[in-house]
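Duplicate of #3305? Posting structure anyway:
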């Protein structure tokens, strides 16, 4: 390890010490009871709500996956995906946040499975169990993406084994999540969101300067067929640097496929929990404005780091997986070692801010919803907390197994988990909040059909190619919505008690 690597490591250790300090600070308050641990006692302010929602959501894929995708195929895939995500962020805050905050208080819910179960007043906890299983399956995949990010970061930065570094990252995240729960996670996410956006903007500016200015970057990007177009996608060679074949047209189905990423927001527990945890629904308007500004700035910077990378000598890659190292390589190329260490801590920040969210939500689904809700209804707070910690350890191990293959792209892992959660939860969240006629059987059918369709489309339909390569979230979201409507209309209307409660929430 040379002197530059030592400075990188020192900077990252300082950063991690701050993160651990936050966990320790909130540990006593977080462990007061299950609601404090899993939802922070509904005490988040508007800025923390906005920043922590976006930091926990964007994860390492925005610093590594998104720039890597833009570097590899150009503007179209990354650009339309970013547009969809920006629209989804805004609409989720605008449409869902206040109603969900109000409804979750009304039905005394502090997890997503809690909300679904209490909203429909189920007795046998079938919906709660299914929702918990969905979280366990897809958040294990999501957590794997975060661990993969950490493994690639340390492997590339220090030349160490990907596997060993991924394991170290898993242990750190596990210990940190043990400590502080939701409050610590949200407070550290606030700091990490700032680190992420500063690092992105700084590296973009330095990259443009290194490439000879904006005009030089644009001229170079336009020299590759389809690279700088939203209506074509580039086809890079995997044997020669900066050599491209003929571009492929980017049709309406491809655009819709990317825009569909925005639908996923309606079903993302890590974001929805921030809506439920804010201290007042009236502060969500400010949170929405802060969140959309952060998202737009961060994603634009991330995409153009990839575009600019094609103009910078030394940022040369021959696969999409390799290209996901562009952020780390740019940091070590353009910044003094200590600052590069802090910039790379931005990647670590993104991965940690997401993985602790995913692990915590999964732990809450098992301990609060399955263990206390079904297995042992008289479980004490201490027993629930122990169950959550055992769950954290098991899910971390599962995530490590999924992340074991270093050749998997961060973007691909993210897209699958995003689709699964978005299709299983998104339509049901919307119908639960805004359609009084939604029935309990429809809720179960809609959740199952959305989640199963993601697997079916990904494994069976996508391989057919052509028009069938559309992102699984779009057909799965549509199917789940249609199933909810159809089953609601053919089953018995909800009880008056449920509809009266719905009207009370709607009236505010």
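Output from current build:
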């Amino acid at each position: 390890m040379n002197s530059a690597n030592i400075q990188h490591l020192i900077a990252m250790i300082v950063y991690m010490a701050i993160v651990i300090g936050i966990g320790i600070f909130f540990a006593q308050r977080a462990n007061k009871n299950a609601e404090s641990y899993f939802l922070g006692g509904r005490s988040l302010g508007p800025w923390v709500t906005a920043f922590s929602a976006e930091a926990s959501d964007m994860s390492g894929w925005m610093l590594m996956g998104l720039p890597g995708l833009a570097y590899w195929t150009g503007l179209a895939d990354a650009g339309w995906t970013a547009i969809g995500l920006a629209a989804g962020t805004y609409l989720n805050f605008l449409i869902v946040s206040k109603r969900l905050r109000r409804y979750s208080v009304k039905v005394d819910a502090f997890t997503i499975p809690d909300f679904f179960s209490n909203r429909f007043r189920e007795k046998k906890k079938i919906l709660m169990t299914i929702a918990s299983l969905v979280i366990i399956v897809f958040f294990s995949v999501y957590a794997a993406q975060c661990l993969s990010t950490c493994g690639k970061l340390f492997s590339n930065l220090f030349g160490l084994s990907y596997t060993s570094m991924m394991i170290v990252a898993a242990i750190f995240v596990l210990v940190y999540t043990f400590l502080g729960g939701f409050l610590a996670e949200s407070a550290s996410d606030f700091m990490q969101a700032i680190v992420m956006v500063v690092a992105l903007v700084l590296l973009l500016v330095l990259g443009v300067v290194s490439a000879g200015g904006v005009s030089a970057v644009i001229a170079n990007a336009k020299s590759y067929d389809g690279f700088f177009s939203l209506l074509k996608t580039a086809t890079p060679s995997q044997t020669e640097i900066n050599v491209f074949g003929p571009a492929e047209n980017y049709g309406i189905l491809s655009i819709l496929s990317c825009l569909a990423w925005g639908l996923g927001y309606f079903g993302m527990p890590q974001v929805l929990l921030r809506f439920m945890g804010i201290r007042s629904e009236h502060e969500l308007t400010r949170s929405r404005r802060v969140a959309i500004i952060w998202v737009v700035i961060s994603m634009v910077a991330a995409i153009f780091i990839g575009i600019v990378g094609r103009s910078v000598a030394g940022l040369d890659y021959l696969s999409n997986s390799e290209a996901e190292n562009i952020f780390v390589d740019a940091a070590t190329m353009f910044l003094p070692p200590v600052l590069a260490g802090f910039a790379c801590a931005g990647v670590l920040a993104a991965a940690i801010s997401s993985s602790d969210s995913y692990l915590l939500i999964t732990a809450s689904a098992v301990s609060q919803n399955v263990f206390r809700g079904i297995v042992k209804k008289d479980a004490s707070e201490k027993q629930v907390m122990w169950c959550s910690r055992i769950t954290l350890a098991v899910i971390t191990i599962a995530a490590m197994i999924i992340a074991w293959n270093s050749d998997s792209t961060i973007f691909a892992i993210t897209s699958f988990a995003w689709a699964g959660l978005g299709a299983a939860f998104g339509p049901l969240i919307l119908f639960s909040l805004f359609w009084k006629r939604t029935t309990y059987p429809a809720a179960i059918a809609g959740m199952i059909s959305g989640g199963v369709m993601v697997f079916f489309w990904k494994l069976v339909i996508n391989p057919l190619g052509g028009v069938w390569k559309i992102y699984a979230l779009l057909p799965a979201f549509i199917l789940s919505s249609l199933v909810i409507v159809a089953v609601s209309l053919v089953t018995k209307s909800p009880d008056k008690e449920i509809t009266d409660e719905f009207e009370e929430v709607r009236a505010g």
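Confirmed duplicate; merging threads. Strands lie at 232-236, 244-249. The first helix runs from residue 3 to 30.
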